[in-house]
Amino acid sequence: MITKAEIRKLIEKAEEGPRLDYKEDLVLESEGDKAQFVKDVLALANSAGTAHIITGVEDKTGKLVGIKTSHIPEQLNEILKDKCDPPLRVEYMERDLLGYEVGVIEVKGDNPPYIVAVRDKYGGSVSTSSRKTFFIERGTVFVRNFNMNDGASRDDLNRMYAAKYATPQANLRVDHEIEKALVDDLIEVTIKFVFVNDGDAPATNPYVILRFKNIAELVKCTERWRDISHLNEEVPTIVYMWEHPIYCDVRLHSGGAIVRVNRDTRQIETHIDMQAGNMQRRQGQYDIPIGG
Known about the structure:
There is one protein chain. By secondary structure, the chain is of the alpha+beta class. The protein has two domains: 162 residues, Methyltransferase, Cobalt-precorrin-4 Transmethylase, Domain 2, CATH 3.30.950.30; 118 residues, Immunoglobulins (Immunoglobulin-like), CATH 2.60.40. The protein is 15% helix and 45% strand. The radius of gyration is 20 Å and the shape is globular.
């Protein structure tokens, strides 16, 4: 199980990813709540390896707020029982961190793909809203694309089976660091991207394209990134291409971009397109929290 020091390190990153999900609270009162929990666990398990859900943390900012609802491992595993194929169990603990109580669910996805294994569908009303319902259906495969849970595509399944049965593959993910400053009526954000290869082979000829959705201005690119907005109908777009392999377990600092956003913007929304010579292409939403 993860150590207290490792929990703190994950929270200090203040960003979710394929193997990390923040939740301000984990409510498991209704059938809809429990169905959402099963979906979240399956999506993390299909990232392969060890993943975590940390509760008592704001999911957009990474701010510690402390858990409102306490749980025990037996309760969580009873919810998962007979709903995952292959069967899946989680570990759970609650720890005091900087004066706040946080909960940590550890998910070990050693045998993906994991699919929903209910009779037909399962779920119902969600306790936080009498009008909201949520269901999961038998046979669905959920995956975590960057920091979003979604249904699997054919490429997602190919990637799982490639990792399981085929030759070693690269598995690139993107981390980021930000710095903020006030410029006139806008917030100027310096974004520095870091590439991490969690696969078992170097990523050859990698490229990443990021299309910004809600910024006021793209000021400039830094280091190895280039502005290709003119090739995308003037939508703020940047690209990173690197002729050298990105090796496993190496954090490659690549520069990034300086952008300006409105003062009420809490996160920078982007669409990301990432590929390497020995990795399936990945596309999806990639949000960069910037706080208040």
